[in-house]
């Protein structure tokens, strides 16, 4: 690599280091020069979507599989079409880096009546809009600090699990920056927990565990976003507590896990699952996100007040909040500590309904019901599948399907934008092909939702030699 | 009509009075109850678009033909997908009424973690975003004032020629309002000009006209938006000055008008048109909008400083601004006054190039060039056609086509969002069918742009028994 490289190349070198191997978006005259640098970086490819909404959904789907993604659009006309997708990523804690090619600093200062502006000299409007739906929104304004700003924004997206917005004036793209900046990798590690608060919290949770006869674990959306699935499984292994998932937490624990008890959705749960969760005398809730669709319209009815919530930035025990006690570190501590206080605990039986698909009897003469469909689909899944389901019938239905092995479920349960699933499936297909060329992405959608973003099918065709429409 | 009607019905009764006979948008659970009221109003129909971006483009296209339009979306996931279309309407001065069905006042106050929210209790985010790209954004918060607020917002859109945003909490839709409010029509008339300022401006323009040997009229975008085409034609009739159009002003004057001289785009003009405009010693510019694409990248080169600009809110003579001298009224005054001071004026010859298509000779062996195409297309147009051209090759090319009779040209020259034209054509098709069932809408686009909003084709199919793909 030369000593100095263009800022445009720097951006893609960094993304490559972060495992972002596909870049989504559309060309436009304020980002064309940037896109030309993709080819300079081995390991990064351009997806080239059909429109920006689909691109933003694709970036969201990709990030849910690979942990981070990048979307590139152009000033005004491009970026605004991605607003819905970015807002969804914000709502659902998905880290998408949105880079927007914008007019030069000179044109901006001159308030020129350029195309793609509102014609009134306000060049900062779009950034102001995106500031509302991203963790942070910045404009690159100095080539000497630009690499640092990009690094910081990439880190912010990764650590906060939220989208960020970077406006890149086109005059900076070819400006040179030192290549050796790339030698220091971007630090993505979390800071440690507050040791005193963590110790108190662990002690309190141990006390509650000793007293509990019937504790459960409930895994939710932010366990997936914070990528603690392995810790969740270890916690279930070590404690043998029954473990349940919410709709947004589905695939936070392998459903082949011997202690997996089913999906809990308040009053919409299977009766035996509802009973098992609501009769617990201690609930360890990991990454909870209590939206209406995720909770059966807020119908949780725990009989106990002994609820411990593990979040990305804090832990809450009953009403007490322990700030700066992040789920990653305290779960590690509990996996070590809890087995020592489980002397009296006898593992309870699990609900039977989640395994009902195994005994499914099919009579060809009977009508195909939703219940039949989703049970039957359970036998179709392979352990590495990625199952994307659309808001509505598909997302509600798939709750009752069994995900074997490491199946990843993707659904926009909180934000619930129809059309999302098709775009997200396209993005997930790029991620899947990077992880394992045989990995399947399966989209469940309705014909109404499908028409919103149908172009996404063409976006992902290059990923597959075969595609089946069922 | 009963004495009291639901607010939902009131909205559509008012739209009907304003000539908005088609409503664009998509259903969603916060606007469903509103949409149910459309059927109660004879003369208003639901377009039912495939996605919100396409719906917003359709509403823009409809408003450019009929003078006002309405788009209905749902909270968050719906409205945000329309952001690009609404921003375009703002930039290009197109009055679109955007009504968004939002959660109830109770849910909003309770900051419930509802679907379609960002999950953080901020229910006002989307309105804040749209406040940046609309003339005015409001939330209905009281049933007693709601009819008045709707009336005011409808008037604001019409008078300012900009989009407005109205968030309608779903709890108000079925609330009753007095039906007799509908008897007083919404006042859409402009206030009068400042009489003193107008008199001074008219006097000054008359002086300049007496001194001029070679005055011209240049018609631009806002002449169309303010619907002064008849006054523009009368001014040309009465003065016999050559009249030119900008790309955004194309169809502001019939190109069959005996004094129509061609389209002026700075350095991109035909040489004889460029010479005719730039050698003028008085330019009467009506509704000027000086964006880069509209001016050949800011390449106007008038040899005179005698430029009079007529705008919707003021008139500018050389450097002097006459506030509150609106184009509508001062043009009427000038049509009366100017003929009296034209004693010495001899009408100059017009450029020949705009009529060149008439002598076009076609040799089947020759390649089809852009120049050939657009000249040839000129003979294909019928006088009532609506010609929609996409940003890029189509919009640049159509400048040289001849529009006969009352052809309406639609192109998003300033904002320049690709994909716009297909959606706008769909919207224009609804407007056209309301004006004259035989009126044709002709879309010029490229295969790249077409893929962004291709669903719009299905949106407008119900308008036509035949559709031709050329």
From TrEMBL, chains A, B:
A single GO molecular function term of this UniProt record: thiamine pyrophosphate binding
Required cofactor(s): thiamine diphosphate; Mg(2+)
Source species taxonomy: Eukaryota, Fungi, Dikarya, Ascomycota, Saccharomycotina
GO biological process annotation, one example: aromatic amino acid family catabolic process to alcohol via Ehrlich pathway
Family to which the UniProt record says this protein belongs: Belongs to the TPP enzyme family.
Organism: Ambrosiozyma monospora
InterPro entries: DHS-like_NAD/FAD-binding_dom (IPR029035), PDC/IPDC-like (IPR012110), THDP-binding (IPR029061), Thiamin_PyroP_enz_cen_dom (IPR012000), Thiamin_PyroP_enz_TPP-bd_dom (IPR012001), TPP_enzyme_TPP-bd (IPR011766), TPP_PYR_PDC_IPDC-like (IPR047213)
Residue ranges constituting the Thiamine pyrophosphate enzyme TPP-binding domain according to the UniProt record: 402-463
Gene Ontology CC, one term: nucleus
Pfam family, any one: TPP_enzyme_C
Protein name, UniProt field: Unnamed protein product
Domain of life: Eukaryota
Keywords: Decarboxylase, Lyase, Magnesium, Metal-binding, Thiamine pyrophosphate
Domain Thiamine pyrophosphate enzyme N-terminal TPP-binding: 7-115
């Amino acid at each position: 690599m030369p000593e100095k490289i263009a800022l445009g190349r720097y951006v893609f070198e960094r993304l490559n280091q972060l495992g972002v191997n596909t870049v989504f978006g559309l060309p436009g005259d304020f980002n064309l020069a940037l896109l030309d640098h993709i080819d300079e970086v081995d390991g990064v490819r351009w997806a080239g979507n059909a429109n920006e909404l689909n691109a933003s959904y694709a970036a969201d789907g990709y990030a849910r599989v690979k942990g981070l993604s990048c979307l590139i659009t152009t000033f005004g006309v491009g970026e605004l079409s991605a607003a819905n997708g970015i807002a969804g990523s914000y709502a659902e804690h998905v880290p998408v880096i949105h880079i927007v090619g914008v007019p030069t600093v000179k044109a901006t200062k001159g308030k020129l009546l350029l195309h793609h502006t509102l014609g009134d000299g306000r060049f900062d409007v779009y950034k102001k809009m995106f500031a509302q739906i991203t963790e942070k929104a910045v404009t690159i304004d100095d080539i000497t600090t630009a690499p640092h700003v990009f690094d910081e924004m990439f880190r912010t997206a990764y650590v906060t699990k939220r989208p960020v917005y970077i406006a890149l004036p086109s005059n900076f793209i070819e400006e040179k920056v030192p290549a050796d900046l790339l030698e220091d990798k971007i630090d993505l590690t979390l800071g440690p927990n507050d040791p005193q608060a963590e110790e108190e919290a662990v002690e309190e949770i141990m006390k509650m565990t000793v007293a509990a006869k019937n504790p459960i674990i409930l895994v939710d959306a932010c366990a997936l976003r914070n990528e603690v699935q392995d810790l969740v499984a270890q916690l279930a292994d070590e404690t043998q507590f029954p473990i349940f998932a919410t709709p947004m937490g589905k695939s936070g624990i392998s459903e082949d896990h011997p202690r997996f008890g089913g999906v809990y959705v308040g009053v919409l749960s299977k009766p035996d699952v509802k009973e098992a969760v609501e009769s617990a005398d201690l609930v360890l809730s990991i990454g909870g996100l209590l939206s209406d669709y995720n909770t059966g319209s807020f119908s949780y009815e725990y009989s106990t007040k002994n609820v411990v919530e593990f979040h990305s930035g804090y832990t809450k025990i009953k009403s007490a909040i322990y700030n700066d006690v992040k789920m990653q570190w305290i779960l590690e501590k509990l996996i070590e500590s809890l087995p020592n206080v489980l002397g009296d605990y006898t593992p309870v039986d699990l609900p039977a309904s989640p395994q009902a698909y195994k005994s499914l009897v099919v009579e060809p003469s009977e009508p195909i019901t939703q219940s039949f469909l989703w049970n039957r689909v359970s036998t179709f899944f392979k352990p590495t599948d990625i199952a994307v389901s659309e808001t509505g019938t598909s997302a509600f239905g798939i709750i009752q399907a069994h995900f074997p092995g490491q199946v990843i479920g993707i659904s926009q349960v909180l934000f619930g934008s129809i059309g999302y699933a098709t775009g997200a499936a396209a993005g997930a297909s790029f991620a899947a092909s990077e992880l394992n060329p045989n990995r399947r992405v399966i989209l469940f959608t309705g014909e109404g939702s499908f028409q919103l973003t149908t172009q996404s099918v063409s976006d992902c065709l290059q990923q597959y030699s075969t595609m089946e429409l069922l």
